[in-house]
């Protein structure tokens, strides 16, 4: 290949002309510029509709697209654009932005204008900029600063168009735009201390300049003119950079939110792994032992529920309140004895020593029921009243004769009775052989920081 | 087996299942066995409303949580047009305010999903016969709800103070239910008949559904916060 040196020359966007594939063009009548390599200003025309080229764009890829379509070098087109912009007093730039909006990117199925029309907020911002432009134009025409007035319209339209483009462009195009805007944003956008200093200096210079101009005025007309100039400069800065800056700030917030969400997800995944996944693994391993599986599933269900509904992290066992204590008894007894414990709690209060003793007695009673009753379910009912706190442990197991309990079985006597009476409470055990057992525990409440569950007639 | 005309009485009640988990529906179906007649099932609010109106079952077993809204949406929609259809809430959820909401919408009871097959059949029969079914957990919720704030301090206007609090007897019955007693055991404990126990429970249900007590809503709101 003669012009293989053209392929991928660094830093220079390759247009189809130079990336010739197979010398077709040579035969088709474009041999001259190839051989001499100096007159590379015109290549073959492309085919198909005009598309914005994403591969070698500077801004929107309009020039590149046009160059590819017409067969010119992209830089020739770019220079022509700049010249046209200068000569038309900025109006041509509006044309560029319009083309950016209306010409679809290559590979995309629609243009940006179509999407922009459905973007209510973008349209609102664009309309706002339009009206700002109008106000600027009115001020300028009042002040007879004609050249600024001429600039106001194209500037406003361009900014409005760019806002719409920015809001509706796909991510890669936005990235390209941000790159383009980087030098400007480094002055206005937030960031390091030096940038803030620069901004403050800039604002200070503007202010001093404005005040100086104001003070240098001698008569009313001369006094108004520079004021208008300063106002316009400030307005231009706000109008030009405001939306960009806002957008960047919003992107930052979104990014931070996304990061927070990702962290939350990771935390959730860790917790689910520690609890649910572990349990599922245990269940798979113990699939041939239904009792064990049920027990695991129940324990897991309860843990998951207390996490989802009560916000208690799995595995956290710090018991501060009565309801938590009851839940803990349920959890432990179910896990250790493979029996279902149904709990109902009415009211709740902070734990103190008396209530801890009550809970300890209740735990003993529940464990007893689990061990000896032969029942499948133990019911635990706790109620906090204004004057007392009661707890009932009931099973429908085989029951026993309380009078006939051997003396060596310390459970009932020591753990339950003695524990309760030491603290001023009482324990009653009712059991009928063949029908089941109920242990009733009552502890009077001393004054304290408790929430009474309510008035009981 | 029942004859088509024999509904709600001694025969097997016609039951409709609403639950978003297919696995759970088939589990309940097999647990209910031949003892009740399952006439249909649905997995969400919209299809449930349509199919219940079509099949007009005696009892609807209703999940408190459904993807398309709470179970109370189904109760409210059906109650208006077909007051004879009765609802029994069935849930794995612990959130009391959701349970109370379904009951207040018109369900005649609430049982947890851990209930055994025999107990469930019994509960369905009871609801079909027009009684209320309170699981220990629901009894606890109700005691909590009516005890949360003393009725006397209620600022909200109430046209029937009778509805705003439980009688001592009703409280006793609820407490025994919460302790895990069956209706029969409660009757024996309190030296009353099972029918009387049932009427106490129905009366509590009525109060729960009709009370305009401002505290009930406040209680629910507080539960939601903690």
Task: List the topology elements.
The complex is a heterodimer of chains A (457) and B (226).
Chain A: H1 24-27, H2 32-36, H3 62-70, H4 74-87, H5 91-102, H6 112-117, H7 120-143, H8 146-168, H9 171-188, H10 193-216, H11 220-285, H12 290-310, H13 322-337, E1 340-346, H14 353-373, E2 377-384, E3 388-395, H15 410-422, E4 426-432, E5 436-444
Parallel strand pairs in A: 1-2
Antiparallel strand pairs in A: 2-3, 3-5, 4-5
Helix pairs in contact in A: 3-4, 4-5, 5-8, 7-8, 7-11, 8-11, 10-11, 11-12, 13-14, 14-15
Chain B: E1 14-18, H1 22-32, E2 37-42, H2 45-55, E3 59-63, E4 65-66, E5 69-70, H3 71-81, E6 86-91, H4 96-105, E7 109-112, H5 117-128, E8 133-134, H6 136-147, H7 161-164, H8 168-178, H9 183-190, H10 194-210, H11 214-225
Parallel strand pairs in B: 1-2, 1-3, 3-6, 6-7, 7-8
Antiparallel strand pairs in B: 4-5
Largest sheet of chain A: 5 strands, mixed
Tell me the series of helices and strands of chain A, N- to C-terminal: HHHHHHHHHHHHHEHEEHEE
- SSE-based structural type of chain B: alpha/beta
Unreliable stretches of chain B: 1-9, 151-159
Query: Which strand order spans the largest sheet of chain A, edge to edge or round the barrel?
Result: 1-2-3-5-4
Strand % of chain A is 5-15%
Distance between the termini of chain B: 48 Å
- State the total count of DSSP E strands of chain B: 8
Mean pLDDT of chain B: 80
The amount of helix of chain B comes to 40-55%
User: Residue ranges of chain A: pLDDT <50 for 5 or more in a row?
Assistant: 1-39, 447-457
Query: What is the overall number of helices of chain B?
Result: 11
3D structure, described in words:
With 457 residues, chain A is of the alpha+beta class. Helix content of chain A is 60%, strand content 9%. Chain A is built from 15 helices and 5 strands. Chain A has a 5-stranded mixed sheet with strand order 1-2-3-5-4. In chain A, β1, α14 and β2 form a beta-alpha-beta unit. In chain A, α11 packs antiparallel against α12. Chain A is elongated, with a radius of gyration of 41 Å. The N and C termini of chain A lie far apart (104 Å). Chain B is α/β, with parallel strands linked by helices. In chain B, 53% of the residues lie in helices and 14% in strands. Chain B is built from 11 helices and 8 strands. In chain B, strands 2-1-3-6-7-8 form a 6-stranded parallel sheet, sandwiched between helices. In chain B, strands 4-5 form a two-stranded antiparallel ribbon. The longest helix of chain B is centred in the last third of the chain and has 17 residues. Chain B is globular and about 40 Å long. The N terminus of chain B is likely disordered. Chains A and B meet through α12, β1 and β2 of A and α6 and α8 of B.
